[in-house]
Amino acid sequence: MKLSIIGAGYVGLTTAACLAELGHDVFCAEADAGKLSDLQNGKVPFFEPHLEELVARNHTSGRLNFGRTEQAIDHGHAIFICVGTPPLENGEADLSAIEHVAREIAVRAQGYKLIIEKSTVPVKTGVELRRYMSRHNANHLEYDVVSNPEFLREGSAVEDFFHPDRIVVGVEEERAATQMREIYRPVLEQSFTCPVHAPCSRRKEPVFLVTDTNSAELIKHASNSFLAMKISFINIVADLCEAAGADVTKVAEGIGIDGRIGPAFLNPGIGFGGFCFPKDLQAFVRIAEKFGCDFALLREVERINQSRVGKFVETVKKELWVLGGKKIAVWGLAFKPDTDDIRFAPSLSIVRQLIAQGASVRAYDPQAMGKTKKEIPDLICCRDIYEASAGVEAIVLLTEWEEFRKADWARLSGLVERALIIDGRNALACETVTAHGFQYVGVGGITGAPELTPSISRP
Ligand code: UDX
Asked: What is the arithmetic mean of pLDDT over 333-358?
């Protein structure tokens, strides 16, 4: 099918590349001239596993092309709107980019178009979009508006596209649902060649859920808010475990075994970040307010999350006493592993506070160093965890990159000034690091004393 994507951000570019991989003829529009020229030269402007190879393969084969919005409007039978909806000062989503695209479609498009809103938007955006289109419909365009919310996680977006739990389509006309089913048919039947795993054992057919547009829009905000609520819940349970002498990992395991609760999103730590959870949570609270519902529960979720940074800095201070003049290694800066995204990352707030209190922070992140250095010029950026950890009084882990779990602890114990690890994600095995002479401080009551005297052999 001839499909168009407007907006080549995380969601738009991933959707474009994956739809092309399924065999569709895709045109992706990007308004930023620099980004567009990068894409036309095969350069992906952010790090996302597997995405670059998918973009390159499909661009070379001619199934994925890039250009301007007008070209995208002319090209696609279906147009996915994937433009940004950043938060306004009051927490509401700014929908001006969506309105702008709607205007361009209304004044330019001919015949029939399936207009798909994929950007995260408040409930009733589909209704407003339809109203706007009908008011500006210069060419008597025939169209349907569909809400098709995105559930891709950064770091596993390609995998999530091909193996989703569900595909939600909010429609007002049956013909729109039929076309959406056709677009996603290979994913629904799991009949594609998997670009992530070979051989692929994850062939579970996703649920195709058809709703009205209002409900589909609410599903997106409600899902993200529910997951955020699970994280804040376990973070307070972690506080309780710490105070009462219990182990949050065991408590989370015990809770998660209950099929009604599930084990996912019960990892405590420095709190959730990224461009989705914090903004979607705020937006959902504002949406509820607008409709006269007091979602105080979610305001509390947000408050708990914001308190994590201060709490973690206090933990570091408890161990190091005075931060002024201390050298600290920070492992991980991205808001989560497998991405270079640092937007609303709690790690950055922690680093800023450590530096503000006089610590010298030596950081390493496999992908997010360049972006972070621009935000925090005082940060000392290192080539790897070993350079970052040389001569430090504490190693502070803020993002659970897989490579940190494979660290050479014997080598590290010879590099550090003091063998102390403060693990903000409970990512490391306490028994492994203590066996190498490190003191371990995790979140939620997980601590371990060194088993050996550290062999400090600094030059
Ligand atoms: C999220 C949703 O999962 C996805 O469906 C939606 O489309 C976009 O928002 P993403 O922001 O990429 O995806 O990351 P996610 O993996 O959900 O993690 C969000 C934040 O929660 C991260 O900061 C992560 O570190 C934190 N988190 C997650 C926890 O602190 N504990 C957990 O148990 C899980």
From this structure: 97
